[in-house]
């Protein structure tokens, strides 16, 4: 198990930056214990991080983690 990316670079999996978390998700893609990892994290109610290729925020799986601070006013994803 020590050869797994999450064991070699754990800081990537708990980063604040959405971009870094996406890198961590990519490292999870070929992991042989991906499903067990996510199931264990959900069972333990892990508060945050990348587990089994999914991002957890507040113990819930989210598609994307929002960056810190207020969103830009010209962000096309924001509907006024």
From TrEMBL:
<keyword id="KW-0238">DNA-binding</keyword>
<dbReference type="Pfam" id="PF02467">
    <property type="entry name" value="Whib"/>
</dbReference>
<dbReference type="InterPro" id="IPR003482">
    <property type="entry name" value="Whib"/>
</dbReference>
<comment type="similarity">
    <text>Belongs to the WhiB family.</text>
</comment>
<protein>
    <recommendedName>
        <fullName>Transcriptional regulator WhiB</fullName>
    </recommendedName>
</protein>
<dbReference type="InterPro" id="IPR034768">
    <property type="entry name" value="4FE4S_WBL"/>
</dbReference>
<dbReference type="GO" id="GO:0051539">
    <property type="term" value="F:4 iron, 4 sulfur cluster binding"/>
</dbReference>
<keyword id="KW-0963">Cytoplasm</keyword>
<keyword id="KW-1015">Disulfide bond</keyword>
<comment type="function">
    <text>Acts as a transcriptional regulator. Probably redox-responsive. The apo- but not holo-form probably binds DNA.</text>
</comment>
<dbReference type="GO" id="GO:0047134">
    <property type="term" value="F:protein-disulfide reductase [NAD(P)H] activity"/>
</dbReference>
<keyword id="KW-0004">4Fe-4S</keyword>
<dbReference type="GO" id="GO:0045892">
    <property type="term" value="P:negative regulation of DNA-templated transcription"/>
</dbReference>
<dbReference type="GO" id="GO:0045454">
    <property type="term" value="P:cell redox homeostasis"/>
</dbReference>
<keyword id="KW-0804">Transcription</keyword>
<keyword id="KW-0411">Iron-sulfur</keyword>
<keyword id="KW-0479">Metal-binding</keyword>
<dbReference type="GO" id="GO:0003677">
    <property type="term" value="F:DNA binding"/>
</dbReference>
<feature type="binding site">
    <location>
        <position position="28"/>
    </location>
    <ligand>
        <name>[4Fe-4S] cluster</name>
    </ligand>
</feature>
<dbReference type="GO" id="GO:0035731">
    <property type="term" value="F:dinitrosyl-iron complex binding"/>
</dbReference>
<keyword id="KW-0408">Iron</keyword>
<feature type="domain" description="4Fe-4S Wbl-type">
    <location>
        <begin position="5"/>
        <end position="61"/>
    </location>
</feature>
<dbReference type="GO" id="GO:0046872">
    <property type="term" value="F:metal ion binding"/>
</dbReference>
<dbReference type="GO" id="GO:0005737">
    <property type="term" value="C:cytoplasm"/>
</dbReference>
<feature type="binding site">
    <location>
        <position position="6"/>
    </location>
    <ligand>
        <name>[4Fe-4S] cluster</name>
    </ligand>
</feature>
<feature type="binding site">
    <location>
        <position position="31"/>
    </location>
    <ligand>
        <name>[4Fe-4S] cluster</name>
    </ligand>
</feature>
<keyword id="KW-0805">Transcription regulation</keyword>
<feature type="binding site">
    <location>
        <position position="37"/>
    </location>
    <ligand>
        <name>[4Fe-4S] cluster</name>
    </ligand>
</feature>
